[in-house]
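Collaborator request, handled under Task 6.
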Amino acid sequence: MNHGLPFQPLTHRLAGLPLDQALYEGAPPWLDKPLRRWLENCLNSVYPAEKVAQRAVIRLRWSIHANQSYSRCLVDCPNSELLTAVDAVLQLHTGWEWLEATEGTWREGDLSFSREIDDLDSILEDAGSSFRVYRPKHCLIKRVDETIHAAVDKSIEEAPSNAADHLRAAWAAAYGIHPDPDKAYGQAVRAVEALACPLVTPRNARSTLGIVIRDLRSQLAQWQLKVTGSSGHPASIDRFIEMLDLLWKGQSRHAGNPSSRHQSQTEGEAAIHLAATIVQWLTLGILEKVPSSSP
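C-alpha cells returned to the collaborator:
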C-alpha cells in the first residue's frame, strides 16, 4: 500500500523525470502473467468453474483442442486475446448473482469475488493499462479522465432507472474491449427519450426525440427553463432544443438509405456526454411548463 502517493522508480526520481502517466493498450509483457494468474485463480474459485469457462469460450466463438479444458483454453490464449478472455470471464462470473442490487454491497458468502474484482482493478492500474473494471455492466472499459467519468456517473446515479440503464449501456458500448459506437449513440438517444418523451409528449406512445423536438418548437411559449436569462426572467428553451437537435440529427438512422453510415468512435463518445448533460437537466426539472396565468 502506498497510501495514495504516486509511484516512481528510484532511477527516474533521481533523474528528475516526470511521472509515467502513459496508458498501455493490450497486455504488455509485464501484464501478461498477472492477467493469466488472475484468470486461473478466478476460474478455480467460481462454481461451476468449467461451466463458466465453457460459456465464455462458446460466446467468444473460440475453437478448443481435443484434450484441452475450457479453462485452459482461456488461461493459455494468445496474448492478443488475453484481455478479451478476462472480459468474458468477468461478464459471465456467477459471483455477480450475489451482489445485492438494492444495497450495492456483497453478501458474506461471496466476498471472495469482490476481492478478485478489486485485485483485477489493482493489477490493471499498476500496469498502466488503458482498461479498468466497470462494475455496473460487469466488464472492462477504457480508462477515462476521472472528472469526465464522475460527471457521467452523477447523471446515472441521479436519473430514473430507465434512463440510467440506457446511459450505462451506452458507456459500456463506447468504452468496452470491442467498442460499438452505433450502439453507444443509439443508447444515448434512448436515455434522453426515456425522460423527454413522457414529459413533452405524454399521450404519444410511439414518440421519438424527433417528435419531442418538433413539439417543443411548436410550443415555445408553453415551456421555459429554470435558468434565469439576461432579462431576469426564465430563459427560453431555444438553446435546449439545439442540444436535443444536435444529438438527434447526429445519429445515422434508417439503414439502407444512401446517407446511412456507421457512427465514428468520437461521435459515440460525444453522444454519451451530451446525453448525460441532457438527462441530468431533465432529472433536475430544468425544463418545465410555463405556469398558467391566474384568472
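The cover message to the collaborator said: "The longest helix spans residues 181-200. Residues 161 and 214 are 26 Å apart (CA to CA). Please let us know whether this matches your experimental observations."
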